Amino acid sequence: MTKFRLDDTVCAISTPLGSGGIGVIRLSGPQAFEAAHRFFKPSKETDIRQARSHTLRHGYIIDAGGNKIDEVVAAFYRSPRSYTGEDVVEISGHGSVVTLRKILDLFISHGLRLAERGEFTRRAFLNGKLDLIQAEAVLDIVEAGSEGASCAALSQLEGKFSSVIRSMREKLIQTSAHVEASIDFPEEEIKTNTLAEIKGTLGDVRETIETILASYERGRRLREGTTITIVGKPNVGKSSLLNVLLGKNRAIVSVLPGTTRDAVEEAIYLGGHCVRLVDTAGMGSSDKPLERLAREKTKEYLDKSELFLFVLDGSAVWDSSDMELSALIKDKEFIPVINKIDLPQNLDRARAGHVIAKHDFCLVSAFTKEGIEALEKKIVRCLENNHGKKEEPVWMLRERQKIALEQGRDAIQAAINSITDQAQPELFALDLKQAMERLNELIGEVYTDEVLDKIFSQFCIGK
Ligand SMILES: Nc1nc2c(ncn2[C@@H]2O[C@H](COP(=O)(O)OP(=O)(O)OP(=O)(O)O)[C@@H](O)[C@H]2O)c(=O)[nH]1
Ligand SMILES: [Mg+2]
Asked: How far apart are alpha carbons 224 and 17 in whole angstroms?
């Protein structure tokens, strides 16, 4: 996106392509009402160019030749009380791709421009309806893969995160004013207790930034979902367990050991958490080339997973393969699962328990489904322990936001150090300015077209 224009009117299909219950076409810009008037015929004779904001009209889309294209409902929003802050018309049709495309083409032939990716939200930002953190939260809401991610994104969209940043910025502005005054009027030297106060305030701001940064990992997991990997020696029932947890036959199951060769990944929801569940190839001790490859593949998941289900076969004896696996994951978080409890048991639980230590076994049968619900509950408990309590705010920081915060924190630390070293106020005034600039970038008080291009190119067209 090169030079960005705000003076033209854009249009796009805002619902996903495919047949749906309804499909929405959005028009935004100074010509939106005029363009709607050209092709939308309200069933009750009125001039929609005069439509009041936040009103709906039923009617038909009629092409230039007078043919009815679709029966629709149009919603009218007047600037500045709309998503983009401009005049907006949203036309809800019957959701057929063909019809939606036809309607879109009518508006484009009339001189409207097809919106770029994220252009509606970019316009909302440029028109001051949202700050940059809120604009990025829009993307997080659209992409949220779990209840937690959607809650965090919504609270960011509502401006809770922005207000924390703004209040820090306010503190920096006040502190900076103090310091600037002492530079402008050197005869009024900053008193020692004022310096101590400034240091205290800066310390508070740094603390707040540290707390936000500390939730980065949790936020990332919320956004990307959690990976749980099922490991175990061949034939213990890993794929069967995956299928049971998914509620569908996703992975091939057979009596032959070594059935699964490649890792199989599927997304599931567990207690409101979006989880990527991975079934891996059984890790035996044979040195056949294919098995070696399978083992390498499984090892790749060791660093990628947050939690492991270590599956043992209750009907088989504990052997060196179980032993090797338990050594491999001993420093990871895992739930030991004894499968096949419907069969006569041969596993020496005391011995296995000795190796696995501290951990309670989950006893299940992928065959009869006994114990599966308890296993699911245990997984959810582990996830909740890792992700923190629900009440704690988790900010889903994007890389851009994290970098700005880190740089802001470093500048504040530099200012604190200068005060401690009794440096000239000019010196820490500069650091304070740096810190404020980083916070301004964060909320988009200052920005470049490149930064906006990068952010909004991640959106879809129509958002
Ligand atoms: N009786 C009984 N049989 C089971 C149970 N779980 C799995 N099996 C059987 O055990 C055999 C192996 O199951 P899989 O799910 O393919 O085992 P796996 O661990 O994925 O095996 P690999 O992919 O070869 O490592 C199959 O014949 C399953 O039907 C169970 O709970 N009870
Ligand atoms: Mg398998």
From this structure: 24
Which bound ligand lies closest to the C-alpha atom of 235?
1
CA of 292 to the centre of ligand 2 (A): 15
C-alpha 255 – ligand 2 centre gap (Å): 10
Residue 450 CA to its chain's centroid (Å): 22
Least reliable range by pLDDT among 66-70, 295-299, 341-345, 418-422: 295-299
DSSP element (H, E) containing 106: helix 97-109
Helix axes 216-224, 372-387, angle to 10 degrees: 140
Q: Can you list the pairs that 247-256 forms with residues at least 24 positions away whose Cβ atoms lie under 8 Å?
A: 250/279, 251/279
Whether residue 460 lies inside any domain: the answer is no
Ion ligand 2 neighbours, Cβ < 5 Å:
238-239, 259-260
What's the distance, Cα to Cα, between the start and end of the chain in Å?
16
Q: Is the pLDDT of residue 4 over 90?
A: no
Looking at the CA of 366, name the nearest ligand: 1
Same domain membership, residue 275 and residue 323: yes
In a domain, 355, yes or no: yes
Query: Tokens for 427?
Result: 């010196």
Q: Tell me, yes or no, if the pTM score tops 0.85.
A: no
CATH of the domain at 98: 3.30.1360.120
Ligand 1 atom closest to Cα of 233? 25
Helix, strand, coil percentages for the chain (3-state, nearest 5): 45, 15, 35
Is residue 450 assigned to a domain? no
Ligand 1 atom with least separation from CA of 260? 23
Residue 254 lies in a domain: yes
Cα(378) to ligand 2 centroid in Å equals 22
Ligand nearest to the CA of 238: 1
Task: Summarize pLDDT for 376-410 with one digit per residue, the tens.
Answer: 999 999 888 766 555 566 788 999 999 999 999 99
Residue span of the structural domain in which 97 resides: 10-131
